[in-house]
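Narrative summary of target 7.
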Amino acid sequence: MNPNMKLAILLIIVTSLFSQWLYAAEATEPSEAELLKAYQAYAADIASIQSNLPGMPKDYTPPENMTYRVHAVKKLACEKALGKPGYVCDSLLDETYPMQKRSKNMHEDRFIMTTDKSWMVIIPPARNSNSAY
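Modeled conformation, tokenized:
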């Protein structure tokens, strides 16, 4: 067997194993702790965007009452997303929106597994729409 053929076979085997690993990694739904971590990462991303808006000082940190914060998550249910990767989960979030009081709100969001084996939340474009995201 020539070296190119061996390399091609090795590449097919590695690709197959990687695909199986990705499938296995997303075979179980995210835990409540993983949902909280994903929502808090989302909130941190929003704060980072606020800090880097044009015209803001280099070391600007938004005031606490101007940031979105997630304090806790109660996972209610998750199911495999239809036709898309990940899971759609119903959760009760204890959260604070900018300039508002802390409140508990229902959310239905999709979560996907990232390459570093953590979950990322995908927020639908309009929470009140019935569109598939």
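The mean pLDDT is 82.
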